[in-house]
Input
Amino acid sequence: MLDPKQNPGTSPEVQTLRQQLEEKERLVDHLEKEHQKHQLTRDQEEKLIVSAWYNLGMQLHLKAVDERLSNQNAGQSFLARQRQITSRRSTTFAANHGSR
Output
């Protein structure tokens, strides 16, 4: 019935089916393009989130380092800090080994 070889003239049914097929193909193309747009937007948003997270981590790390350095350097020279470290070690060593 719908075989074009048996019916050389295009029947209204065939034309209707062809129009429906073309409409559905246009819809599929449109949906594929929309999907690609959404995927690109999602990828960009993901990159921005990762970048912001990295920057936040770096800021917090630098802040912690600055605080640690500012607490260590409270009016002491490098040699004074080294002397404190050495005296702490010897005090700890004497406390651990002197009470035998």
